[in-house]
Amino acid sequence: MIKNIQKDSPTASIAILVRSRTHLKEIIRELESSHIPFKAEAIYTLTDRPAIIDLLSLMRALLSPLDRIAWLSILRAPWAGMPLSDLHLLCEENPEKSIWELLNDTNLVDSLSSTGQQLAKRIVSILLPTLNALPSNNFRDLLENCWIRLGGPACLEETPPRDIESFFDEVESIMQKGEINKVEHINQVIENLYASPLTLDENAVQVMTMHKAKGLEFDYVILPGLGKRPRPESKQLVFWMPYGDELLLAPIEEKGGNHSPIYNFLAEMDKEKDDHEMLRLLYVASTRARKQLHLFGKTKNNNIPESNSLLESLWPFIKSEWNHSESDEAQQEDKPLALTSETISLKRIPTNFTPPSPLLDIDTEIMVEIDEEKNISPFLWAGNAARCLGNVLHRILQTITEEGLSEWSFERVDQMAPKIKSALLGEGLPFEQTEKVLQQTLLGIRNTLQDPKGQWILANHQEGRAEYPLTQFSENRFFRKIIDRTFIENDIRWIIDYKTSRHEGKGMDLEEFLNNEVIRYKPQLDSYSTLLKEYGETRPIKKALYFPMLKVWREI
Fold it and tell me: How many CB atoms lie within 10 A of CB 51?
């Protein structure tokens, strides 16, 4: 059914919701055998992962040289894969000796097969430095290093690297707390650590409990196992219930003693609460579906659902629709099951496996620096006000370009005055200069909107950019440059730089001032042109300066 849904609606979200995690084992096994990607969060524990089991065996072997089961496990693990015949030869005549002693017995190792000899020598060469370093306060690094050299990362069969990292983090946490005794029983410590999902497929089938599904929605929701009865609970030691300002309390009766009416009453009350909670849970699960809800369950031979099952709660509403009958079930039971044989192949890394060489060290001799574009200092008489005016006016011209000229009238410019004043103060302009610089800023905006050349600059063009950031690498430095305005017209790339100079200097006429500005800023615009060519620009490039305060255009 899932394959049919995914075939018809490839992007649809599908969820399988169950009442308890115990109902998921067979479902997950079927999904795996059918190669259907799924996410089962908080379902598998770390100890369900094969690579974690092998890692646990390695840790137990390092901590306990006499743990024969752990040592035989690491010899049989995917990073070694010693044949069973060699393990038998190794242990048969020496039940009292440790496996480590037997691996170091030259005569005994020489009696193994050529593969067994090669594996034994490799294991000894890797484990010897680790065992010599024990005991160690840095046990986590020691264990991880040994696991890597054995080839553990190459044996992560169906085990995400995140789970391996969680295991090592837990070992490190225990060692930092000084709880060394817990390391020997770490399999009990990590029982409550859940493994990560095996797939990162965005459209994988979501598998979770009904509790976890609260607040979520899916296109298709499947509720399997509705006909299963909940696991019978053992009798509680004590029941209690508030009764006004008092507490009604009933302990369990003694074994073989008389039944306690109060205990039975409170037990019935508790069962009734559980029934209401079950109905609430069923409602939550059923309302997660946006398009379709699929219900699966099995009735008894008389076509009646099991008592206390979720199917029993739904039965009054779906009895007439339930597509199931005694005859269909009888036919299914009479049909012989096809026996299939499954061949299990053990996966092992090559006998001559060596870990890949580590990556080269980072070259720390040459430090790469990142420099912001250095602004050319304004005239001495301009001061801080010119910087504040320039920064704010640049941002406003960028906004006009992005929003479009049609959105900006002179009335809007006047309405913007309070915001422009705040922006100038935010740039660090002294309060007493604000009003004067504000009027200059408004003048620059109005000039640009009135000037035909200013309108052309701000208009919409092919590949238009405003305040266009680019990075240039030169002489082992990264330079960050920002182009005020660039676009393409008539197959020509234009680079335009705004200059908010107002020609307030003395002893120089306007034309001489503009010529000096062109000479002054030509290297800067040439560097923009070179940078765009490095980024792949092949069109002819033209450069110009625009002075909003003067309504003047100068092509370079």
Answer: 24
- Using an 8 Å Cβ cutoff, are 240 and 249 in contact? yes
CA distance 61 to 78: 16
Take residue 202 and report the two structure tokens written for it: 């965005």
Helices (H), 34-113: 50-63, 68-76, 84-91, 99-103, 106-110
Question: Where do the H-state alpha helices sit in 82-178?
Answer: 84-91, 99-103, 106-110, 114-133, 139-150, 161-176
**DSSP 8-state assignment for residue 17:** E
Facing residues of 543 across strands? 495
Q: How far apart are the first and last CA of the chain?
A: 70
Q: Could you give the CA distance from residue 535 to residue 463 in angstroms, rounded to a whole number?
A: 14
Structure tokens that stand for 383 in this block: 């001061």
Sheet with 38-39, strands from edge to edge, namely 38-39, 205-209, 14-18, 218-223, 289-295
HSE, CB side, 13 Å, CA atoms: give it for residue 290.
9
Give the Cα separation of 182 and 260 in Å (integer): 43
Calpha distance 143→74 (Å, rounded): 13
Residue 262's H or E segment, with its range, is helix 261-286
Calculate the CA 448 to chain-centre distance.
Answer: 48
Q: Which of 29-43, 162-176, 182-196, 510-524 has the highest mean pLDDT?
A: 510-524
Query: Do 313 and 123 form a contact (C-beta atoms < 8 A)?
Result: no
Q: What is the CA radius of gyration of the chain?
A: 39
DSSP 343: -
Partnered with residue 247 across adjacent β-strands are 242
Q: What angle do CA 195, 198, 204 make, to 5 degrees?
A: 125
pLDDT at 375: 55
pTM of the entire predicted model: 0.47
Q: Using one digit for the tens of pLDDT, what is the confidence trace for 445-503?
A: 999 999 999 999 999 999 999 999 888 777 667 778 899 999 999 999 999 999 988 76
Q: The tokens 């092919």 sit on which residue?
A: 462
Tokens at residue 515, please? 């010529």
**Pairwise CA distance, residues 147 & 56, whole Å:** 11
CA angle 173, 178, 183 (to 5 degrees): 65
Q: Would you tell me how many other CB atoms lie within 10 Å of the CB of residue 59?
A: 22
Contact 211, 281 (CB under 8 A): yes
Q: Considering all CA atoms of the chain, what is the largest pairwise distance in Å, rounded to the nearest integer?
A: 117
In angstroms, the CA 180 to CA 284 distance is: 44
The answer to whether 152 and 55 are in contact (CB under 8 A) is yes
Q: Are strands 477-489 and 462-474 parallel, antiparallel or unpaired?
A: antiparallel
